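We close this part of the discussion by returning to an individual protein. Part of our work consisted of pairing the sequence of a single chain with a tokenised description of its backbone. No coordinates are needed to read the tokens, only the vocabulary itself. The amino acid sequence and the backbone structure tokens for this protein are reproduced below:
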Amino acid sequence: MIAAYHIIFSAYGFWLPNDPRGSGSTYIYSNAIYVAGGPATKTSERRSVAHRAHDVALRKKTKRTLAQKPVRFTGIQARAIGRSFATYFTKSSIAAYACSILPDHVHFVIGRTRKNLDQLVTQLKGAAVRQMISEQCHPFIDRPDHRGRHPKCFVRGYWNVYLDPEDVLGRIEYVEKNPINLGLKAQRWSFAVPYRAK
């Protein structure tokens, strides 16, 4: 029985569609990225491939072809993103059990919900972008186009794992330890609630 979801979504430039370790993409829209790194590397792997051995030089070379510099959220930006999530979860009936806002991606463990996950992730990204713009800390705040829109700081899509009840506490611990494992401070978000098995 599905009790929760582990959701990960990425900042611009974190994980390219032709990452040598695999990706969730079947197509590459940028010719420059395709020429530098080859075709999309769609994988059906359900476990993280982040630690898989790969051609690091090729990955870095491909990232140099991006139209914008890869996004690395600062502490101020992470705080703004966290505020947006707090507002979102306070207004929703969805339980967030854990969250880590890392420099180039976000982890969540959330409770089971009737809401479509595609819609949920799109709303979370949108809330984060609006909050950063309102606080004047969007990564591309100084680069609006002629319509006043800023380049995207999150990429399309996300990664999700369905969690059985026996998996939830371990995944919460994993998400909470992510910042510490990167040498950052532990994160405690006001919107994160304790998990209680039903």
Q: What stands out?
A: The radius of gyration is 17 Å. The CA atoms of residues 77 and 144 lie 18 Å apart. DSSP finds five helices and four strands in the chain. Helices lie at 31-37, 56-63, 75-91, 117-134, 165-181.
